């Protein structure tokens, strides 16, 4: 891909900032739009130009007018499944209306392609077969999953009617440096912070619920490859294809930090799946992408990061 100007919504956040770093290191110009509700200035690369703005804001149009980006990577979102259950109107406002506002500006200013951060686990819901391919039936059991699926439908509409090219990346459970350890989302970050600080580590439910944990740098690389891909396939699962239980995750992390750490079990949380794992053959075949970082290697890198920032 030629050197381009790329706008990243949510680019001061966990995943978006890693995508920005990789793009800048490859010589692209990066513009970030972030309302800093969860993003942090410390995550921004020094070469990034940033606008503090909510994607629902009418002022987003002015950013497109001034910057004229060639591509857009849409990471800005309300990401907390539990918050979506408590406040589905807020979730829909950010994840659906915010996305529509963004896509309208993309069409007006002739953006070449949009890459959406979608969600494999939340869209598929309780899986009927494992791992789940992109053709798996949609059974979202949270407003967050419904909103992400709706955003994908809007991408399809904007391509069919307005010719806006896109790729939707259905992430597995992304973890790594810069993830927020203080919210409800992001079990790796939460465990790392609590274990390193000698605090009680709580496992919701039995701990036998499973997830497909994918390291954030692998996810960032998938975004670049999706930008570059020229294919009729528009939707891709981005994961490892491996199931890991929360109990197993805890055991690996305590072996790295302190083998004497013990966990407590609390009640299971509403709206959370029992099992989730993604089949990623399409991304390998079309994008020439696959996960590279093993779970143990990724966890060590993540724990080293949390040690270094003293959260």
**Overall pLDDT confidence:** 96
What proportion of the residues is helical, as a percent range?
Answer: 40-55%
CATH architecture of the domain at 5-175 and 214-239 and 279-292: 3-Layer(aba) Sandwich
> What is the CATH superfamily classification of the domain at 5-175 and 214-239 and 279-292?
NAD(P)-binding Rossmann-like Domain
Q: How would you sum up the major sheet?
A: 7 strands, parallel
Q: What sequence of helices (H) and strands (E) makes up the elements?
A: EHEEHEHHEHHEEHEEEHEEHEHH
What spatial form do the alpha-carbon principal axes imply? globular
The radius of gyration computed from the alpha-carbon positions, rounded to a whole number of angstroms, is: 19 Å
Instruction: Give the low-pLDDT segments.
Output: none
Distance between the termini: 38 Å
CATH class of the domain at 5-175 and 214-239 and 279-292: Alpha Beta
In words, what does this structure look like?
With 311 residues, this protein is an alpha/beta fold. It has a domain at 5-175 and 214-239 and 279-292: NAD(P)-binding Rossmann-like Domain (Rossmann fold, 3-Layer(aba) Sandwich). Helices cover 41% and strands 18% of the residues. It is built from eleven helices and 13 strands. It has helices spanning 14-25, 60-67, 81-86, 88-108, 120-124, 143-162, 187-196, 216-228, 246-257, 281-287, 295-309; strands at 5-9, 29-34, 49-52, 71-74, 113-119, 165-171, 173-175, 201-204, 210-211, 213-215, 235-238, 244-245, 263-266. Helix 1 (14-25) links the parallel strand 1 (5-9) and strand 2. Helix 1 packs across helix 8, helix 4 packs parallel to helix 6 (143-162) and helix 7 (187-196) runs parallel beside helix 9.
């Amino acid at each position: 891909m030629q050197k381009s100007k790329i706008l990243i919504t949510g680019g001061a956040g966990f995943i978006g900032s890693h995508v920005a770093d990789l793009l800048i290191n490859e010589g692209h110009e990066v513009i970030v739009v972030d309302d800093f509700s969860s993003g942090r200035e410390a995550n921004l690369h020094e070469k990034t130009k940033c606008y503090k703005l909510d994607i629902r804001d009418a002022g987003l149009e002015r950013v497109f007018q001034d910057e004229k980006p060639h591509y857009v990577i849409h990471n800005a979102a309300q990401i907390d499944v539990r918050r979506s259950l408590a406040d589905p109107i807020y979730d829909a406002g950010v994840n659906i209306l915010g996305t529509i506002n963004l896509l309208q500006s993309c069409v007006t200013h002739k953006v070449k392609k949009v890459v959406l951060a979608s969600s494999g686990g939340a869209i598929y819901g309780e899986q009927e077969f494992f791992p789940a391919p992109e053709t798996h039936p949609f059974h979202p059991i949270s407003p967050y999953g419904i909103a992400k699926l709706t955003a994908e439908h809007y991408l399809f509409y904007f391509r069919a009617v307005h010719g806006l090219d896109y790729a939707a990346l259905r992430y597995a459970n992304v973890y790594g440096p810069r993830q927020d350890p203080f919210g409800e989302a992001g079990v790796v970050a939460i465990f790392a912070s609590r274990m390193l600080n000698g605090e009680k580590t709580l496992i919701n439910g039995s701990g036998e619920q499973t997830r497909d944990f994918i390291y954030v740098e692998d996810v960032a690389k998938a975004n670049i490859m999706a930008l570059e891909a020229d294919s009729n396939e528009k939707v891709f699962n981005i994961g490892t294809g491996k199931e890991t239980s929360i109990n197993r995750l805890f055991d690996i992390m305590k072996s790295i930090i302190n083998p004497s750490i013990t966990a407590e079990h609390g009640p299971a949380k509403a709206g959370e799946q029992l099992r989730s794992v993604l089949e990623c053959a399409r991304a390998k075949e079309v994008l020439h992408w696959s996960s590279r970082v093993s779970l143990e290697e990724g966890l060590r890198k993540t724990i080293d990061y949390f040690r270094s920032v003293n959260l």
